[in-house]
Amino acid sequence: MIEKKLRSFRNIIRDRKSSVTRQLIQNHYAEICIICGDTKDLTKEHVIPKWVFKNDQKKTFIQTLNEVSQTYSKTTVFACKYCNNELLSSLETYIQQLLNSVDLSEGFFDYNQQDKLILWLEIIDYKLQILDLRRKFNKSPKGPYIPYLANIPVAILQRDTSPTWIFRGLSKAYKRLGVKKKNFKESLLVFKTKNPDFHFFNRNHDFIFLELPEYEKAFFLFLRERFEEHTDAHDKAMEIMKKVY
Predict the structure, then answer these.
(1) What is the pLDDT of residues 19-76, one digit of tens each?
(2) Are 225 and 203 in contact (CB under 8 A)?
(3) 3-class SS string, 89-119
(4) Which of 15, 13, 9, 34 is nearest to 133 (CA)?
(5) How far apart (Å, rounded) are the C-alpha atoms in residues 202 and 196?
(6) What is the pLDDT of residues 72-95, one digit of tens each?
(7) C-alpha distances in angstroms, 168 versus 18, 24, 33, 128?
(8) Which pTM was predicted?
(9) Hey, how many other C-beta atoms are within 10 angstroms of the C-beta on 209?
């Protein structure tokens, strides 16, 4: 069943090509399904799935230059009923079952399972990029509120980036969802963890980290960078985690 749903999902991504992201780039606040671009039967899709943070209404995170915390429960994007309930929900159900069924003390995820884990993390990254594109600049962490910057998306104000880089990254993130992950396996790192709390951090179009205490697992995925050896990916991920985590 999941294979059939994922074929449908990837076919939608390939068929729509750049039309969905083009609409989002032209109008950052466009009310369209982030997967198929439809404007009908829209629902709210959580950027971080509710089950990941146990639907804790008070759980917050800081994602952008504004350094303003917000709750995971209210952080959503649009998806039509079909894409949300049939495609995205099917993948999340599969991921939950997979996390419960694989004990890292006794085994590991096979290539087919890794493919789905990578896709799931890529979808979260894609949603985060849309979130940043839509978030307005409120106040510099080290300076006063600047009125003429108020309507500029935060993503465009990030260091060492340009609007072209941001828009290209969003388009690549969308197209990436339609590709099977044959050469991506070395970029996924899986850790067994005993930490009691959920943790998350990311750099859009670069990497994403999720720690899921309920399942005693943590994931670090390099979104663009490829490695010949898994140990190279591990060493670089540990460097980043020491700075951020």
Answers:
(1) 999 999 999 889 999 999 999 999 999 998 888 876 666 666 655 445 556 666 678 8
(2) no
(3) HHHHHHHHHHHHHCCCCCCCCCHHHHHHHHH
(4) 34
(5) 20
(6) 667 889 999 999 999 999 999 999
(7) 10, 12, 19, 15
(8) 0.86
(9) 21
Sign for the pseudo-dihedral over CA of 115, 87, 168, 179: positive
Residue with tokens 């884990």: 117
**Amino acid identity at 204:** N
Q: Locate 185 and state its tokens.
A: 């396996």
Q: Which helix (H) or strand (E) holds 189?
A: strand 188-192
Identify residue 137 by its one-letter amino acid code.
F
